[in-house]
Fold this protein.
Amino acid sequence: MNQPTAAEPPGQARPRSRTVGTAVFAVIAVIVIGTASFFSIRSASGGTDVRGNMSLIAPAAAGGGWDTFQRELQQTLRTNGIVNNVQVVNVPGAGGTIGIGVLAQQPEANNLMVGGSGHITAQVQFGTPSRIQDVTPVAKVLEEYDIIAVPADSPFESMDDVTEAWTQDAGSLAWTGGGSFDQLVMTDIALELGVPVSETTYIPSDGGGEAIQALLNGTADITAGGFADIYPQVESGRLRVLGVVAEERLSGSPEIEAIPTLTEQGLDVTITNWRVLFAPPSASDEDVEELREIVAEAVETPEWQETVERNYWREAPLEGEELDQYVQSETDRITTLFEEMGR
């Protein structure tokens, strides 16, 4: 998950240099998107409508989950001729919230930003001025799931083993994860078990790879981590999976389908890392409907279906009023979890 690059307690005044730097970056990002759109318009035969030209905003640096999603979507749109000219524009910073600010300023509807729980995590944790409520939800596309894993030689062979040890001594297990979302998963499990969150041990890591190393070198005992990051290590025999944080078992290989959910193991924890596409607030109802049709066409293609399988994603379509309610309920839930974490 894409994570904030610096920690500031909510409500604490930001240094002026950071405020100015953030503003300058946002202005530059707007110029970059505007320039890219200009050249696309000049070279496009389809004009300036959303099917003629589109910018896909990845609110993070290249290589992360949001960037991967947008580049996979770009390839799908290009391969199937759904959009004439489509480009990915990276707008990193502040846990993705600079990307929100940039999208909110776009005057044209042909800009789609991918967002999700990571944005809400950032805006709650750091009190950022740009919020997910500033932009227009178009369509929820998919969800990514965390799995709970331990080193292959760990004495913990099931979530029951973890529960027994953790409830006896809240600080006895050293958890790790690739970012704030993974810590939210740990917090949710702790609350479900009645483990005092303030007494838990959590070792933050800069991405899934670092979290895996913390497990393998003995720094950490257990992780809640993204499926795509952790599961290949399970397949290689280096890690053991104890459960998946999902409402139901995932489809896939027999090995994946055999992974029990936490719910099956008596833990009502189903928080997911979701992916929603957002348009600028300037988009009209007609624009939003056209964008939804574009997304619907893309996700039905064989190329996208292969992408979903390759990245261990799960389709979870949602739009309209139900999507608005979903984003608000997730905002409320993540806010509550951060309050429990003492943030």
In short: The CA atoms of residues 22 and 104 lie 15 Å apart. The chain has twelve helices and eleven strands. The mean pLDDT is 86. Residues 16-43 form the longest helix (28 residues).
